[in-house]
Amino acid sequence: MKIIDGKAVSQSVKERVRDEIAEKNLKIGLAVIIVGNNQASRVYVNNKKKACEFCGISSYEYALPEETTEEQLLEIVESCNNDSRINGILVQLPLPSQINEKTVIEHIDSNKDVDAFHAVNVGKIMIGEYSFLPCTPAGIMELIHSTGTDVSGKECVVIGRSNIVGKPMGMLLLHENGTVTICHSRTKNLTEVCRRADILVAAVGKAGFVTADMVKDGAIVIDVGMNRNAEGKLCGDVDFDNVAPKCSYITPVPGGVGPMTIAMLMENTLRAKKLQTL
Ligand code: GUN
């Protein structure tokens, strides 16, 4: 069993982005918009700004109060759409309940939508014609590639069908010719379905959800979970201690998928610049 080092793979992606930006002497800006006082969001946003600094991307933070209205947020998005210094726009989710997330996402210029959340970019992912890669699934593909595994013909099982992870994850695996099953809360015989997987991706949001009996010997297990256990410790969706001995490869939490999402965001911000320049 080998633990996939997400920090190391993420570092090499960020170095690739940094080197290309330096070599071509590109001036790139990313707007990072955060609304309210969600602590996890604050940590993510700080990490995204740090990654920008590493890569040589200017980050422009807009930290707005909890009571911000939808109109106020839309105005800021609009001004970023029209600002030529800004190549990418990221609105950190979740947003406070008075703001409709879908309305805000659809307001972002699809050529600056570095999260690939806009319907136009989601549609492009469906037909395999990417402007932007969905960050978390694209990061997971990099992790799988780092093991030297060819996805073609493999049984791939994704647990979770969110728009951000589960659904686009299924598409990326399908584009590499995996045989893909997406499971969710209504799936029957979940354990049996998961046991078929050569590649199992858990994006459920429940600590310890994936137990050893759900994993085939030699499987690659990717844990997208970001949960806090009873002691407040960060943990994934996989019961790591019992599952790991059965795997060929497994990602840890923290230090697995998390750092990859940010690295792929940097790559998308570079892509945005190229899209807008060419
Ligand atoms: N909230 C949780 N994950 C993400 C992400 O990848 N991007 C944004 N903008 N918000 C998130």
What features would you highlight for this structure?
Rossmann fold, 42% helix, six-stranded parallel sheet, 278 residues, globular, three-stranded parallel sheet
Care to give the gist of this entry?
The protein has helices at residues 6-24, 39-55, 70-81, 101-107, 119-126, 135-146, 166-175, 190-195, 240-243, 257-277, and strands spanning 2-3, 29-35, 58-64, 88-91, 155-159, 179-183, 199-202, 220-223, 227-228, 234-235, 249-250. By secondary structure, the protein is an alpha/beta fold. It has 2 domains: 24-110, Leucine Dehydrogenase, chain A, domain 1 (Rossmann fold), CATH 3.40.50; 135-257, Rossmann fold, CATH 3.40.50.720.
- List the helices and strands in order: EHEHEHEHHHEHEHEEEEHEH
Any idea what the CATH architecture of the largest domain is? 3-Layer(aba) Sandwich
Task: Give the fraction of residues assigned to helices.
Answer: 40-55%
Task: Say how many strands there are.
Answer: 11
Radius of gyration: 19 Å
Q: Which regions are unreliable across 5 or more consecutive residues at pLDDT < 50?
A: none
User: End-to-end distance, in Å?
Assistant: 45 Å
Strand content: 15-25%
Helix and strand composition category: alpha/beta
Q: What are the distinct ligands in this entry?
A: guanine
Largest sheet: 6 strands, parallel
Q: Mean pLDDT across all residues, rounded?
A: 97
Overall spatial form: globular
Give the strand order, joined by hyphens, for the main sheet: 1-11-8-7-5-6
CATH class of the largest domain: Alpha Beta
Number of domains: 2
DSSP helix count?
10
